[in-house]
Write a structure and sequence with these properties.
The radius of gyration is 18 Å and the shape is globular. It has one domain (about 1-325): (Glycosyl)asparaginase (Glutamine Phosphoribosylpyrophosphate, subunit 1, domain 1), CATH 3.60.20. By secondary structure, it is of the alpha+beta class. The chain is about 30% helix and about 25% strand. Bound molecules: aspartic acid. The site of aspartic acid (ASP) has 14 residues, from strand 9.
Length: about 325
């Protein structure tokens, strides 16, 4: 399972998040150890997971449901214009449109998803409405927008001046072949186990920067970007969506846990499966995180540089995931 060495304790992250500096403190063992339960617990991708986890923890620590926690948690980066890869302020596609993908899944395998959605700041909440208010799992594009407006969501301009400026800069060369920068993948995927022992997950993103108009990644696709099985565990993905979709990555991770693998081992095996099918992984980044029914968690990625945030009774941590390369 997780090595003590891999954990950075972030007891006072709140004050330092604003400055962009993260405190490095003593190591701690975040996973419960064999036979022990660790609940409640929440884990999310990347360092924007730290404030997102804090919002989720407010709910989890008061005995609230994992489903409510993951929705509230990922709304934090969705609404933060400084997080350039999720929600409001996200990088646009090559036509200058901010198009958002999100999905959510609960303990009863109910799920909801939106893709290629424009003008709505909190796509995760629209995804939850799809789950709860429609007979469907997924709504996309104009139909998703119409549904959101009918549900009372506000239509907003999500392209901030910073993102507009960066897009104008990108247009000067307009490289239509996506250049995969291994640090340019910052979806938030969040998994939670509540005090009742139930799992839920959420995943939300503005997708790959300067993608083709209409492109949808793995993040809103149940089984690819997110999967929850309340009997076993949950997993979510970040990185190049096309590579994750090909392997139905998050479902694969959960099935590997079902076979008895720890969360970290399951993520590692899924990463190896992706690598085995790729000709060249030099510029490819994919990262998974996973959480099982006991509250054990882990992550693994192809390239160095992917980290994940955890909040449980012992505090808040940011961990560098182990990597294949
Ligand atoms: N997986 C996302 C996508 O391909 C990107 C990311 O994780 O940042 O849309």
């Amino acid at each position: 399972m997780n090595s003590r060495r891999n954990f950075l304790r972030l007891s006072a992250w709140g004050a330092t998040m604003a400055s962009g500096l993260y405190p490095i403190g003593k190591a701690f063992a975040g996973s419960p150890g064999k036979g022990k339960m660790n609940k409640p617990v929440v884990i999310s991708t990347w360092n924007h997971g730290i404030p997102a986890n804090a919002a989720a923890w407010e709910i989890l620590s008061q005995g609230g449901q994992a489903l409510d926690a993951v929705e509230a948690g990922v709304r934090v980066p969705e609404g933060d214009p400084n997080v350039r890869t999720v929600g409001y302020g996200g990088f646009p596609d090559r036509e200058g449109h901010v198009t958002l993908d999100a999905c959510i899944m609960d303990k009863d395998s109910n799920c909801g998803s939106v893709a290629f959605l424009e003008h709505i700041k909190h796509p995760i909440s629209v995804a939850r409405k799809v789950m709860e208010e429609t007979p469907h799992v997924m709504l996309v594009g104009e139909g998703a927008l119409q549904f959101a407006l009918a549900q009372g969501f506000q239509k907003e301009d999500l392209l901030t001046p910073e993102s507009y400026k960066d897009w104008q800069q990108w247009l000067k060369e307009s490289k239509y072949k996506p250049v995969i920068n291994i640090e340019n993948h910052d979806t938030i995927g969040m998994l939670a186990l509540d005090a009742q022992g139930n799992l839920a997950g959420a995943c939300t993103t503005s997708g790959a920067a300067y993608k083709m108009h209409g492109r949808v990644g793995d993040s809103p696709i149940i089984g690819a970007g997110l999967f929850v099985d309340n009997e076993v565990g949950a997993a979510t993905a970040t990185g190049l969506g096309e590579a994750v979709i090909r392997m139905v990555g998050s479902h694969l991770v959960v099935e590997l846990m079902r076979q008895g693998n720890s969360p970290e081992q399951a993520c590692k095996l899924a990463v190896e499966r992706i690598i085995a099918k790729q000709k060249d992984v030099k510029d490819l980044q994919v990262g998974f995180i996973a959480l099982n029914k006991q509250g054990e968690y882990g992550g693994y990625c192809i390239q160095k540089g992917f980290d994940y945030a955890v909040r449980d009774k012992s505090g808040s941590t940011l961990t560098n995931a182990k990597s294949k390369l």
